[in-house]
């Protein structure tokens, strides 16, 4: 595809994912850019849809759905069940922001036209519970430091209430229980991520 550059981040020793993505974006010479992670897979149907999308000037960027594969099951509910990410866009569409859980935002004042692809990215993020916990620990540290630089505070009440609320929101309100055992494990893990983030943020403000 001479109209498209595909950029894959390995995620090794990266402490600011937005900066890493923007550095790669600055090197692009083709009109279009597609960002995928090393644990994501493009299906044949999605590939064909991408090829068709970049031959048209109807849109400046596209949302891609992402489907998590966890413990042998495709998660359809909970926090990961409805993920939509801007991953395909023209090279001058905008820039990435946030050091972790980063998003691709349109340039200031841009009137970019947004489209949506129908076929999802397949995501295999966690080979085991151990690697899942390792990623949660790393990402929560980056997120806590980011919130600290923004002047956001944490409290003992937030450390307790936010993780519990996150669990019930994902497992009950967003129907995570319909994903069976993988669904409850995912809800617990996301709640634990929230707990670690708020706790680490609290400790940053109260360090001696």
Care to give the gist of this entry?
With 208 residues, the protein is α/β, with parallel strands linked by helices.
pLDDT averaged over residues: 95
N-to-C series of helices and strands: EHEEHEEEEEEEHHH
Please give the radius of gyration in angstroms. Answer: 18 Å
Strand percentage: 15-25%
In CATH, the homologous superfamily of the largest domain goes by the name Spore Coat Polysaccharide Biosynthesis Protein SpsA, Chain A
Sheet/helix structural class: alpha/beta
Please give the share of residues in helix: 40-55%
Q: So what's the CATH class of the largest domain?
A: Alpha Beta
Strand runs, count? 10
The end-to-end distance, rounded to whole angstroms, is 55 Å
H/I helix tally = 5
Task: Give an overview of the whole structure.
With 208 residues, this protein is an alpha/beta fold. The protein has two domains: 120 residues, Spore Coat Polysaccharide Biosynthesis Protein SpsA, Chain A (Alpha-Beta Complex); 77 residues, no CATH class. Strands 1, 2, 3, 4, 5, 6, 9 and 10 form an eight-stranded mixed β-sheet that branches. Strand 7 and strand 8 form a beta hairpin. Helix 4 packs antiparallel against helix 5. The model has no long low-confidence stretch (mean pLDDT 95).
